[in-house]
Amino acid sequence: MNLLLIDTEAMGLDLAYRAAEAGHAVKLYRLQDKPVRDGEGFPGVTLVDSWKEHMNWAKSGLVVTTGNVKLTRELDRYRQYGFPIFAPTHASAQLEINRKTGMDLMSKHGLNIAPFKMFDSLKAAIDHVVKTDERYVFKTMGDEEDKSLSYVCHSPEDMIGWLEKRIEEGFKPKGPVMLQECIDMVGEVGIAAWVGPKGFIDKCELSFEHKKMMSGNFGPNTGETGTVCKYVTEDPLVDLIYEFEDDLIKLGHIGDIAINGGVNAKGYWPFEWTARLGWPDFFIRTAMHQGDPIQWMRDLLDGKDTLKIRGEIGIGVLMTQPPFPAKNEEPDKTLGIQVHGLAGVWDNVHPIQLMIGEGPKISNGKLERQDTMQTTGEYVLVATSLGKTVAAAREKVYGAISEIKLANAMVRDDIGEALEQQLPKLHALGYCKDVEYS
Questions:
Q1: What tens digit of pLDDT does each residue of 362-386 get?
Q2: CATH of the domain at 60
Q3: Which of 212, 236, 257, 438 is the most exposed place for a label (fewest CB within 10 A)?
Q4: Of 103, 139, 82, whose CA–CA distance to 301 is shortest?
Q5: Is residue 87 within 8 Å of 255, Cβ to Cβ?
């Protein structure tokens, strides 16, 4: 099969090389301003500078995109002519990008929504915090991609100070902003499913995201630094997401759809949608899949479910290097740093910003040049493992990570650890009973 991977989020190398290993012809396009070398040297993966000129090549095969902010309108036009595109539509992407659109659909189905108010400016939001003297979660309602723009305060004064800092920095939101009341939760849980033109396939996933940079949930929100996942067929959250099947079919959504939220004694409180492949979630699900990595995607476009899964718990841990999580202003400083120890744990590794390039190797007292695995940026790889319990999966994944040698590597060492205390509480409320810590 011909696979064209339109990688708008720079996360597609793992799927590209796995598809190539499975015998497919693969072309990988990276949407970035500067020339990229991610994936350079990987056998079977052809890096291309344009995606449009390769669309006809992929029409008999598969087109996959990794994001939902860019190119959705253009790809929708190709859908009209029968191109096999595994990606959200522009309309379905709005569930995530435009928070109010997503929340309105949740409200339509009667889900618990934490009370919120919208404001046209950060100054108006500050005035509301002063007036109410309450704790809030701040979120943008436009299409900003910066995860750090969501903020959970520990006090009203903290929120005011954070908002004042954004004003000093000159931040101007692309649309309204929202302050949502903080609600105490037993635990945070995501529910995800695969959607085809005929609706869901019978394989839903529970996930437990770790969004902070540092162990113990310290540091900035960087997007997930690690996640615990499990495919399930029965759970209150499975029933919840199935309620949206008709809506997603009408929106033309294809691929991954997820809701993340919190649980307390009053039920499930959804926070937001993810209407695209999730990261590092998709790497973990890849580890939980069996067989050809992309044939099931092509089959889903034809309304068929051929995905075979493993029933174990999966865990994924992100490995980065400085300047993560800061924006990489000097890419040359993160280029060409050798990574050793991968060969012995390659089945656990999902490459992201890596390439195969010539590097120094000492052999019999002589310096030679050989192909070595090297970094191309700060977001290096995700390591995954499976286990019957969270504890077993944790032991395996950190065992694999201990074999990987990267100077200045940064890794959270507690992914999944808090579930030892959270899962019994979730079980008591009827949630996540198929997920055991030990």
A1: 888 999 999 999 999 999 999 999 9
A2: 3.40.50.20
A3: 438
A4: 82
A5: yes
